[in-house]
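wait is this the right file?? whatever heres the structure
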């Protein structure tokens, strides 16, 4: 932590990056950190390769996350909620930064390698036991004696709220709730965040959820509850992929399944898979995700594959039966 603090204190120009397909924790952590560091007089930029889902438009300062590149020198790059440049979706880091002196990684995903393996002047704060990157950012801001304003509180509470599934997942711990309580003392409100994130769905999106729910199949052999959404389903209803956020958690509520899988077809034969389970169900879905080239947490992970939906479901299903037999 001390090294990280010194890095930040000695840097004037700071670029904050996070992972592609940014979620509430990625976006909330970026904005919370950026707003905090700006209060110290730093020049801070946030960049996201992928567009920010509209559902996060309520966050203060959301417009400061840029999508255009203007590479220049940075004293410090902060990588949030991921630990490799490749996770940012930026093809070549030189596209967004001409050069940089130092790198700081703040993340809570379990991992084998980080960008620090490739770069010498790199410091990391990585703790996979923490619920969200937002909590780690909160600790950094406190260490820097930065005043937590209502805006910062709103951003960081959104990060914790989304990564804990609205304080329902098993990663909801006393540290997250203590941080959340601090943010509420600053004027942030869980009910408002909840409303903005979960209660802003269009009728078309709910109808699409209905299509996916009707398609759920359970497999007693491997405990999987699986469904899928085709590109044509989304196109015909005019629904964006971001409006599917939370759907896999609903599939995961089937009591006699061990884990849930939602496959979403995006353009040109690409399929995104989201996996969820619950602590008491005794499945580590990150193993499944990793064997398909993805990653994530034990109870929430994802992957991307090429192919068509039907084939993918049967292949993944067979693979999981094999994985179970190996145990
Ligand atoms: Mn996270």
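ok assuming it is, sequence goes like this
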């Amino acid at each position: 932590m001390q090294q990280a603090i010194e890095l930040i204190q000695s840097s004037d120009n700071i670029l904050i990056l996070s992972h592609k397909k940014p979620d509430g924790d990625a976006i909330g952590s970026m904005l919370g950190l950026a707003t905090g560091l700006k209060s110290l007089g730093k020049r801070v930029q946030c960049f996201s390769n992928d567009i920010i889902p509209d559902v996060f438009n309520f966050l203060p300062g959301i417009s400061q996350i840029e999508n255009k590149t203007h590479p220049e020198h940075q004293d410090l790059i902060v990588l949030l909620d991921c630990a490799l440049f490749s996770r940012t979706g930026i093809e070549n880091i030189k596209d967004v930064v001409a050069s940089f002196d130092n790198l700081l990684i703040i993340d809570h995903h379990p991992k084998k390698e980080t960008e620090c393996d490739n770069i010498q002047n790199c410091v990391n704060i990585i703790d996979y036991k923490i619920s969200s990157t937002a909590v780690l950012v909160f600790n950094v801001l406190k260490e820097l004696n930065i005043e937590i304003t209502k805006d910062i509180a709103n951003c960081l509470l959104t990060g914790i709220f989304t990564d804990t599934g609205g304080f329902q997942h098993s990663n909801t711990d006393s540290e997250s709730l203590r941080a959340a309580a601090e943010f509420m003392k600053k004027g942030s409100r869980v009910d408002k965040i909840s409303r903005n994130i979960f209660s802003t769905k269009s009728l078309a999106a709910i109808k699409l959820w209905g299509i996916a729910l009707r398609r759920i199949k359970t497999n007693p052999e491997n405990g999987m509850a699986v469904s899928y959404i085709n590109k044509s389903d989304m196109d015909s209803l005019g629904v964006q992929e971001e409006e599917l956020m939370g759907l896999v958690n609903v599939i995961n509520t089937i009591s006699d399944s061990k884990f849930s899988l939602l496959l979403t077809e995006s353009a040109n034969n690409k399929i995104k898979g989201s996996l969820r389970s619950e602590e008491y169900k005794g499945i580590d879905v990150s193993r499944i995700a990793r064997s398909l080239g993805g990653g994530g947490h034990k109870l929430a992970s994802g992957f991307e594959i090429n192919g068509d939906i039907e084939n993918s479901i049967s292949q993944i299903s067979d693979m999981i039966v094999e994985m179970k037999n190996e145990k």
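DSSP finds eleven helices and twelve strands in the chain. so i think its the right one actually
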